[in-house]
């Protein structure tokens, strides 16, 4: 049996309400900034805290094009549609593609996908019964994965996973498996989300999950999460391919643990057994012990259930003083894209050898080593192994380990 290929990340693209590039987003979070503000994008809904890049919600395709282009160029790759660069404005066609070879794959997920377009089509149909308005075929859930494949000319597997708020980590895990198994030598992976829609806001508000003033992860005054828009895409390659073409690496994808509670549509199993199992699987697969973990980038939704569960996992299974990063107080909760954002930001932390502060945290409700905002020098840390947590509705549990790649 052949040895599985090592998987490294050679390109990174992020787009959030806090920054239109990976480095800008990372720098703004490091400085303790937040994109959350009181907004009213829909006049028939009351103002609410949201993390938006502009006055109007971004389209999912625009986010996808932006992060794919940034990641592609960051990886030092050229072409894609035959014009020397990825064309992020025109609609790609098969005749334009030059491709990357048969073994390049795409794994791009989204938990809401084109929900905003479906809502608009539903309103239009209600106003004009019997008349179908809008591009329903282009708004199918696999749209971001299909668009990405066309943008870069990929000829390998095209996957569109959906695992609620754990979608991003699941996508990266699937991409890494495609490389380790030898099916692909390069995969474009990540997740995108444009969740600021009337139905999404109304639904989460009805559940009582949305904050009324802001996002304060792990704080004694936390009150719920804040919706945010954005996405994260990365170029995963076998270490051999990256070395052969002299590519720089952000880090190595070590292993992932993925489980499901099978308990409730939105609540965690109160025993946290499957969350613990996901963390144990990740550590075992990475051949790491608690003493090897230099930092944890948590899901940190600022909801009572999530924060309590994550705090319990860290207290019971990791070192009590391991630095804890939580960034949704800066970017908002990008739902299906949030896990990919956490991985992308953690890769930047590995490259820059610095941790990120828990923006929005004032008085901690748990006795963990939460990273506090402060001078740049106080955030400098020697980092070699970082864990990324991601948990979603339906009991989706995902933990991914990253390593510094020399």
Provide structural commentary.
The chain is an alpha/beta fold. The protein is built from twelve helices and 13 strands. The strands form two sheets. The chain has an eleven-stranded mixed β-sheet, sandwiched between helices. Strands 2-3 form a two-stranded antiparallel ribbon. A hairpin with an 8-residue loop joins strand 2 (36-39) and strand 3. The longest helix has 15 residues, at 60-74.
Radius of gyration: 20 Å
Q: What is the structural class?
A: alpha/beta
Residues in helix, %: 25-40%
**Number of DSSP helices?**
12
Low-pLDDT runs of 5+ residues are 80-84, 89-101
Tell me the total number of β-strands. Answer: 13
The outline comes out as: globular
Major β-sheet annotation: 11 strands, mixed
Give me the strand/helix succession. EHEEHEHHEHEHEHEHEHEHHEHEE
Kindly state the mean pLDDT as a whole number?
90
Main-sheet strand order equals 5-4-6-7-1-8-13-12-9-10-11
Strand coverage percent: 15-25%
């Amino acid at each position: 049996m052949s040895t599985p290929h090592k998987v490294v990340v050679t390109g990174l693209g992020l787009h959030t309400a806090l920054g239109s590039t990976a480095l800008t987003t990372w720098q703004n979070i490091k400085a303790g900034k937040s994109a959350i503000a009181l907004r009213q994008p829909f006049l028939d809904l009351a103002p609410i805290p949201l993390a938006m890049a502009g006055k109007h919600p971004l389209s999912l395709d625009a986010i996808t094009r932006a992060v794919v282009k940034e990641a592609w160029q960051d990886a030092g790759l050229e072409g894609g549609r035959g014009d020397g660069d990825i064309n992020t404005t025109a609609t790609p066609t098969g005749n334009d593609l030059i491709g990357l070879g048969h073994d390049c794959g795409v794994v791009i997920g989204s938990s809401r996908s084109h929900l905003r377009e479906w809502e608009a089509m539903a309103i239009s149909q209600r106003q004009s019964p019997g008349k179908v308005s809008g591009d329903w075929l282009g708004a199918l859930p696999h749209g971001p994965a299909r668009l990405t494949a066309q943008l870069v000319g990929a000829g390998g597997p095209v996957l569109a996973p959906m695992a609620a708020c754990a979608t991003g980590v699941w996508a990266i895990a699937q991409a890494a498996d495609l490389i380790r198994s030898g099916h692909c030598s390069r995969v474009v992976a990540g997740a995108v989300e444009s969740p600021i829609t009337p139905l999404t806001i109304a639904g989460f508000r009805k559940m009582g999950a949305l904050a009324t003033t802001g996002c304060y992860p792990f704080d004694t005054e936390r009150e719920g999460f804040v919706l945010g828009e954005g996405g994260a895409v990365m170029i995963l390659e076998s270490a051999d391919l990256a070395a052969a073409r002299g590519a720089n690496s952000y880090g190595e994808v070590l292993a992932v643990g993925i489980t499901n509670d099978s308990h409730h549509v939105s609540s965690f199993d109160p025993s946290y057994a499957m969350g613990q199992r996901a963390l144990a699987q990740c550590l075992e697969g990475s051949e790491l012990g608690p003493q090897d973990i230099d930092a944890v980038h948590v899901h940190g939704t600022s909801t009572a259930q999530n924060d309590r569960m994550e705090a319990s996992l860290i207290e019971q299974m990791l070192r009590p003083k391991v630095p804890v990063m939580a960034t949704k107080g800066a970017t908002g909760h990008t739902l299906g894209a949030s896990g990919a954002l956490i991985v992308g930001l953690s890769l930047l932390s590995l490259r820059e050898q610095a941790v990120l502060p828990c923006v929005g945290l004032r008085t901690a409700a748990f006795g963990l080593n939460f990273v506090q905002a402060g001078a740049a020098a106080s955030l400098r840390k020697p980092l070699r192994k970082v864990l990324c947590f991601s948990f979603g509705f339906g009991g989706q549990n995902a933990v991914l380990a990253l390593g510094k790649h020399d």
